[in-house]
Amino acid sequence: MEILLQAENLSKSYGDKTLFTDISLSVGKNDKIALVARNGSGKTSLLNILAGTDVSDSGTVTFKNGLITGYLQQEPVLDENNSVIGQIFASSGELAQTVRCYYQAVESGNRSKINELSSRMDALQVWNSEAKAKQILGKLDLIEFNKPVKLLSGGQRKRLALAKVLFEGPQLLLLDEPTNHLDTEMTGWLENYLSRQGMTIMMVTHDRYFLDRVCNRIMEIDGGTLFEYAGNYSYFLEKRSERLEQSRAETEKARNLLRKELDWIRRTPKARTGKSKSRIDSFYKLKEKSTTRHKTENISIRSGSKRLGSKILEIKNLEKSFGQNKIISNFSYTFSRFEKVGITGKNGTGKTTFLNIITSSLEPDSGIVKTGETVHFGYFRQEGISFNDNEKVIDAARRIADTVKMGNGSVLSVSQFLNHFLFPPSRQNDFIGKLSGGEKRRLFLVTVLMRNPNFLILDEPTNDLDIDTLNILEDYLSQAKICLLVVTHDRFFLDKVADQLFVFEGNGLIKVFPGNYSQYRDFLKQSKPAVKKQVSNEWKKEIKTREKKKKLSYKEKLELDKLEKEIDSLETEMRELENALSGGELSAEELQEKSKRFSEVEKELDKKTDRWVELSEIETG
Question: Considering 29, 165, 298, 590, which has the largest number of Cβ atoms within 10 A of its Cβ?
């Protein structure tokens, strides 16, 4: 295998905290590597060192001669004065400069300059590149190509940085949390894109479906040491379990030997001659090995919660708009005890707005939200982290409570509860300013759960949390006797904790689906006209009880028949366009024309399929 990158004996510390020591790794051509570890273990630091934006304390990084790399940082730095399309072409090359000048001429309406630059762009075959850039931007919902970067939200900025690095198509791609701020549809597209493309990838991600479907190697930082696994996430879980079991066995063996050595040390205090000194030194090494703790052992929480009465939360005819943008349209729902609902949908469809209305942070335009008297909300917000960096971790937690009541009636001290969430005593006295971004989110989660809510609302809780923390949170949510409402694009998380979904489809439409995310995806596949399968009787019955459906009118039946024919025709055209675009035989003008038509057909197909599903549900209801 051709080696693109070789790192040897890398070490990195910040103050008195050692992240990793003497780790070595290699990246071969076509490797798709995931780097996993707990928050604060040095994943981003390692990527920064490999990308050249930081230096290690010791060790070397060697690249193949002429290797072109691209780096998606967790907090990308963009040119505020650029437009969206301008940022894609932001480099010092002739092609990029020509594109920037062309768009400046378009914005100023300088016709002579436009004509002059158009000829230059023809010579440089820029139109091919522009079509590729706009296709990637469109998939990431960045369709306002001339919008200034300074007006973009945080999520849009991260997606723009991702689009830029994908467009550049480097030989080695370093990605730090690429799925953050992507909705489920975008994440699915990125999975397919990275799997198809012949590029080499090393990334940090906690999206476990993404890991399983894209990666062929996994590297884990644990206790400052790097462990490698040749396989996807499922294989990693299996082999990691075997490694920990073996390590536990070695620790237990060391403890047995320690007891014998301890007896020898105590019985011969006066016989510690030079000859026995090596044995005494071995005793202390053995003692260190025998006290090794495996932090993944026995991690579970059964937090208590306040009593939840029969009346929980009732929503009637809820309406909300911002200007002409309809967010929620005539939505009604009554929560039952201990329901766990996941919220999914594209970015910008109003999911966070919905949560803010429920918690009275925002007023609806009309409709009623009735909250039961016994309901105590716990709200984990996207923007809710506001700690004093000069305060210690344990002091921040103690400001909430001195003790935490558990589900079995026992009481834990704040320190014990923090330990459950992977803040060992050694970290509890650290200043919050020393925590990583993921560790701060974990601490915020702890402060929400410490209040023992009986209705928990989580807005994107999985962003920047490590896999171990996600497992702990999922275990808690699955067992807790609470109501749950969670917004997340993490499909694995939804599958594990949600028993039904609110699907935000845009234009104010919210549909209730009785099942988890994988079941919902299966339902959509079964509803596709190309497959023409019937939804299972069980789901149809559930959906029918949720929504009272009317019968199709004669006009709607004609529309349904017409839609099936139109969808078949559009799907045929889409396949033909895909073949043409990937054939490599089109001229620049033809490529631009067919790329534009492909986008139009895709939008039209989505629109007609949505209408087909809507009418089909009524017909089969």
Answer: 165
Q: Which pTM value belongs to this model?
A: 0.68
Q: Which amino acid is at 304?
A: G
DSSP 24: E
Q: Where are the extended beta strands (E) located within 135-239?
A: 172-176, 200-204, 217-222, 225-229
Angle in degrees, CA 452, 458, 459, rounded to 5: 150
Residue range 439-458, pLDDT digits in tens: 888 899 889 988 888 899 99
* Through-space distance between the first and last CA atoms of the chain, rounded to whole angstroms: 56
- Percent above pLDDT 90 for the chain: 30
Q: Do the beta carbons of residue 195 and residue 213 sit within 8 Å?
A: yes
Closest CA to 5 of 57, 49, 58, 56: 49
Match 């550049």 to its residue by tokens: 168
Query: 370 versus 86: which is more confidently predicted?
Result: 370
Question: Are 343 and 486 a contacting pair, CB within 8 Å?
Answer: yes
Amino acid at 496: K
Alpha-helical runs (H) found in 268-405: 274-290, 351-358, 393-398
Query: What sign has the CA pseudo-torsion 111, 113, 116, 118?
Result: negative
Q: What CATH number is given for 546-620 in this structure?
A: 1.10.287
397 in Cβ contact with 386 (< 8 Å)? no
Where b means 16+ CB within 10 Å and e means fewer, 47-72 reads: bbbbbeeeebeebebebeeeeebbbb
How many Cβ atoms from other residues are within 10 Å of residue 469's Cβ?
A: 23
DSSP 475-523: HHHHH-SSEEEEE---HHHHHHH-SEEEEEEETTEEEEESS-HHHHHHH
DSSP single-letter state for residue 432: G
Alpha carbon distance 192, 139 (integer Å): 12
Among 381, 400, 374, CA closest to 305: 374
Handedness of CA 111, 587, 196, 613 (dihedral sign): positive
With a cut of 90, say whether residue 64 has pLDDT above it: yes
What's the pLDDT score for residue 7? 96
Residue with tokens 């789901």: 539
What fold is seen in the domain 313-527? Rossmann fold (3.40.50)
- pLDDT tens per residue across span 186-216: 998 999 888 876 789 999 998 888 888 899 9
What average pLDDT is seen over the chain? Answer: 81
State the Cα angle at 253 between 247 and 257, rounded to 5°. Answer: 140
CATH superfamily of 50-234: P-loop containing nucleotide triphosphate hydrolases (3.40.50.300)
Tokens 């991690």 label which residue? 299
Averaged pLDDT, 529-537: 42
Structure tokens at 194: 């990275």
Q: Supply 615's token pair.
A: 């009418």
Residue with token string 């045929």: 572
pLDDT surpasses 90 at 410: no
Tell me the pLDDT tens digit for each residue of 397-408.
998 888 887 766
pLDDT per residue over 145-155, tens digit each?
889 999 998 88
- Give the least confident one: 167-181, 190-204, 206-220, 298-312: 298-312
**How does DSSP assign 278-299, residue by residue?**
HHHHHHHHHHHHHT---TTTT-
What is the reported pLDDT for 223? Answer: 86
Closest CA to 527 of 620, 389, 447, 392: 620
Taking the C-alpha atoms of residue 169 and residue 619, their distance in angstroms, rounded to an integer, is 47
